[in-house]
Design goal:
alpha/beta, 19% strand, single chain, 383 residues, Dihydrodipicolinate Reductase, domain 2, six-stranded parallel sheet, 11 helices
Length: 383
């Protein structure tokens, strides 16, 4: 189904008015999406929001925000801890308002499932803000790999992130018992779910650098993902690297290989397709540098994700990165820590039970496929 990009924008009710919400609001403004109201428990955050958004209403009580008819779609931009995230989503489900939830959906599969079931019980649409999927490269790659099959059936993929990411010792960020994989690698797992769907088996090694006091638990997580199709994915992700050849967040690299060729990809740049025929005629080798849809990760991916959700709601179809689809991402995260603890592979059906569908396929097939990206209505400014 073709979704029209002529959207009638719906007002956004923003839950959580901290620093990341500034990026959300900038992205929304860029694509003509109005933030109608905001809620936060912090008076300072509310005051800052009101000064920046004088036309919006601001609340110190979540129920008041949910009762405001101007906030048609709820955007959750609060931390992922169970004590706040689960009851928050349950209250949004009870209000039956569509919701856009900052990733990670949760820190464990059980919490994610609890929230999905709450939304399902009231028929409430939920989408996870897996914003790497809406970066310039993230938007351009699925049609080529999945719809056009430019590589044939992929059999190998490799993704790598390596840089130094430490946190302040006295700040809550980075202190979760499960940190690196749901906190950072979740970006990559969301993209892999979009491109390839759920793996069947996960093997992981997880650890930390003892010289990073701000990250007391895990600061790296390396995963091997095995898929029903025979595809193997190596995902190397570390925040402990301080050498001279970093691959920083935003410049991580993915390459995908199939019988017809290889794609070399980065989130916010063009990517290169090398066809296998070129190898037989090196003097005639053609390396096509493809420039994806214009834009940047910050703030475009945030605005485009919300725009996509609102278009899907308007058309009455399932969005990409739905909470149901994201259960596969959460199951991979859960499997990673179980695998690291047991030093053995973990199969996803052992976590998901009947929710695991072996033939599910790429997340790209479970939502829009021909969504037309809207043009920005305001110029982007540095965030």
């Amino acid at each position: 189904m073709m979704l029209s990009n002529k959207l009638e924008p719906q007002g956004i009710g923003l839950v959580g008015l901290g620093s990341i919400s500034t990026v959300h609001r900038t992205g929304y403004a860029r694509y003509g999406l109005p933030v109608a109201a905001g809620f936060d428990v912090s008076p300072a955050a509310r005051n800052a929001f009101q000064q920046a958004n004088p036309a919006a209403r601001v609340y110190d009580d979540l129920d008041d925000l949910l009762a405001d008819p101007a906030g048609t779609v709820i955007d959750v931009a609060t931390p992922h801890h169970r004590s706040s995230r689960v009851p928050l989503v349950q209250r949004i489900a009870a209000a039956r308002k569509p919701v856009f939830i900052q990733k990670p959906l949760a820190m464990c599969y059980a919490d994610a499932l609890e929230m999905v079931e709450a939304l399902e019980s009231t028929g409430t649409v939920g989408m996870v803000n897996q914003n790497m999927c809406f970066t310039p490269g993230g938007r351009a790659l699925p049609p080529l790999l999945i719809d056009q099959q430019i590589l044939g059936q992929p059999f190998l993929a490799h993704m790598e992130l390596r840089y130094c990411f430490d946190c302040l010792p006295d700040h809550w960020f980075g202190k979760d018992e499960r940190w690196w994989t749901p906190g950072l690698t979740v970006h990559h797992l969301g993209l892999l779910q979009l491109l390839f769907g759920p793996p069947e088996r996960v093997y992981a090694v997880v650890g930390r650098d003892p010289a990073q006091p701000g990250v007391p638990h895990d600061g790296f997580g390396h995963l091997t993902l095995s898929y029903p199709s025979g595809l193997l994915v190596m995902l190397l992700s570390t925040g402990t690297y301080y050498g001279v050849h970093p691959k920083r967040h935003g410049a991580e690299e993915l390459w995908v290989q199939g019988p017809k060729g290889i794609v070399d990809w980065q989130p916010s740049e063009g990517f290169t397709i090398t066809l296998r025929e070129d190898l037989d005629r090196p003097e005639e080798a053609e390396r096509a540098r493809l420039v994806p849809t214009p834009g940047s990760w910050f703030p475009d991916a945030f605005g485009l994700g919300m725009h996509h959700l609102q278009q899907a709601l308007q058309a009455g179809v399932e969005p990409l990165c739905s909470v149901q689809d994201n259960l596969y991402v959460m199951a991979v995260i859960e499997a990673s820590y179980r695998s690291a603890a047991t030093q053995a592979p973990v199969v996803l059906p052992s976590i998901m039970g009947d929710r695991y569908v072996r033939e599910y396929g790429p997340g790209w097939l479970h939502g829009y496929r021909t969504w037309a990206q809207p043009e920005p209505v305001v110029e982007a400014h540095g965030v």
